[in-house]
């Protein structure tokens, strides 16, 4: 009598695919799961369809919020920390750690059961598998080996438009040149200086044709200067240290993955604790540079970030000079300046940085491109820019040099201790309010519709006398009409209110 055909669920198929992806032999996986070689071959052949079905199914499931959200967040942070250190984590270890954190939170009626473990894994899409331990110390031989042996195989699958690099940098966002000396050499871990810093996450493609909207990480979750803002020019996130974390990184990458809608890209990032190796990405293939090599092979660190900071600091200086030294930079100013500075980082700068990293092949016009890059405004120092601008200022060359260098080596990611994890997820409202007050001492004056209309009229008239670019005048005309339309809409609302009030009286 023929044996009954075995029906496999999606979970079993996905588990088999994941095991093979992690390096297990198909024959060994088949024996462990009890599947025939032909069944394994069929599942592997249809892996893309099966994984897509799993994602669609998972998105339809209603995943309940955890009963103890602080505990859940602390456990997820701790789990990512261990994964970043290549520590093997088992179910019993997770349950033991959860009960430890529960005691720290003062949760009495918590039991890390198998049911809790299953729901925790489901909520955060956690699966177990082999984790290879990476060598921590990498020399130039390792870097060269990666460029020669690993990179060509990745590079051949994508065009320059679809190869991206991403990285973080720290910036003292409201520090002025005349205040850098007293901060020189101070560690940015706590105290006044720590409240001056933010972390900026940038990403761009190899061809320089596409720059992702930058992400800014501050200390205050809801800066007062953001009140009533309808749209920020950046993605803004916050945590107690203003650092990139594995949670923020995962949120950003998964959001990006969903936005691609079928377009396939390669994303290269440095191997650091805040960059977990994410599974189940549909459109992004993630790969990592060898450990401890970002300054050698990462394009963002080889010119792009320097250019971004240069443009940003020029805008700070322009603000100071234009206001006769009375400028006060808040977080809203910072994100606006950063967004504009990012726009001004040129495609030539990005392409040059990829070539300098050894990731972009030499093209026929390479010499012309490098010559053009060297002429770019990106490479003009702040001192040269101030001299060329011929504007009065009180900054010494030493001030400007310190201003350029002071945030070059800021820490942007860190491994958290258990105590820091607990503190991060239990930050009280009073502490949050204190941060907002300290970081944003200046109230933002919101321009009225009348002020906006007057400014639009003035700018349109200015362009008539001083500019002959028709496109610029056309854009200004569109802005004027939009503000004017808003003005009359408000006028009609006010007229109706006045009429109704008269009727009531």
Describe this structure in words.
With 505 residues, the protein is of the alpha/beta class. 52% of the residues lie in helices and 7% in strands. The chain is built from 20 helices and 6 strands. Strands 4-3-2-1-5-6 form a 6-stranded mixed sheet, with helices on one face. Helix 19 packs antiparallel against helix 20. It starts with 9 loop residues before the first helix and ends with a helix. The model is unreliable at 1-7, 128-138, 184-191, 373-377 and 437-441 (pLDDT under 50).
Question: What's a quick, concise take on this entry?
Answer:
The protein has 505 residues and is of the alpha/beta class. 52% of the residues lie in helices and 7% in strands.
Describe the secondary structure blueprint for this structure.
Blueprint: H1 10-21, H2 26-33, H3 37-45, H4 47-60, H5 69-84, H6 91-105, H7 114-123, H8 140-155, E1 163-172, E2 197-205, E3 215-218, E4 235-238, H9 246-260, E5 265-269, E6 284-288, H10 294-297, H11 304-322, H12 331-344, H13 347-356, H14 366-375, H15 382-389, H16 397-405, H17 418-425, H18 429-439, H19 449-466, H20 470-504
Parallel strand pairs: 1-5, 3-4, 5-6
Antiparallel strand pairs: 1-2, 2-3
Helix pairs in contact: 1-2, 1-4, 2-3, 5-6, 5-17, 11-12, 19-20
